[in-house]
Amino acid sequence: MQFGRSYEEFEVGATYKHWPGKTVTEYDDHLFCLLTMNHHPLHLDTHYAEETTQFGKNVVVGNYVYSILLGMSVPDISGKAIANLEIESLRHVAPTFHGDTLYGETTVLDKRESTSKDDRGVVHVETIGYNQDGKVVCIFRRKVMVPKQSYLDARGGEQPGRPVPQPDKNWSGPATS
């Protein structure tokens, strides 16, 4: 399974559909809110949300929705990234609720070679997230610095930094046929 892409593998206009989706539970949302100290009752207090909001129920905190979608995109977009350079825009265009399943896809808007180092480039992408009904809930654009193949080759290829298992008293080495 591919994990990320080199600069040469990105094509402007290509769309990558991230898989699998993620069903957002009440627990996920509450834990994220508490970990990030976002105690807004819209996310944590069912009675408050039912009685005082237009939605009539808790809304999943937007930063969690964004984080899920960003994470979903890693195997397709930034799994080999050198750096995330910029989040150009982030829009929450519809609410996400407990029990919704999020799906995402990312389109390559542009790419350019680095002006400072010849072994990398910058990819400009837009990710949309939508729920189980196809309703778009979040849209963001970002720029990611990704390696060229020459960068990867100089650092160990497709899985740089991966150690080689060493034989010892518990394992004698690769099986031979």
Folded structure, characterized:
The chain has a single domain (7-154), classed as Hotdog Thioesterase (Thiol Ester Dehydrase, Chain A, Roll), CATH 3.10.129. Strands 1-3-4-5-2 form a five-stranded antiparallel β-sheet. It is built from five helices and five strands. By secondary structure, it is an alpha+beta fold. The model has no long low-confidence stretch (mean pLDDT 94). It has helices spanning 26-35, 41-44, 46-52, 62-78, 149-154; strands spanning 15-23, 83-92, 101-113, 120-130, 136-147.
Summarize the structure.
This protein is of the alpha+beta class and 177 residues long. The protein contains 5 helices and 5 strands. It is globular, with a radius of gyration of 20 Å.
Record the SSE blueprint:
Layout: E1 15-23, H1 26-35, H2 41-44, H3 46-52, H4 62-78, E2 83-92, E3 101-113, E4 120-130, E5 136-147, H5 149-154
Antiparallel strand pairs: 1-3, 2-5, 3-4, 4-5
InterPro entries: HotDog_dom_sf, MC_hydratase, MCH/BMMD
Pfam families: MC_hydratase (PF19315)
Protein name: MaoC family dehydratase
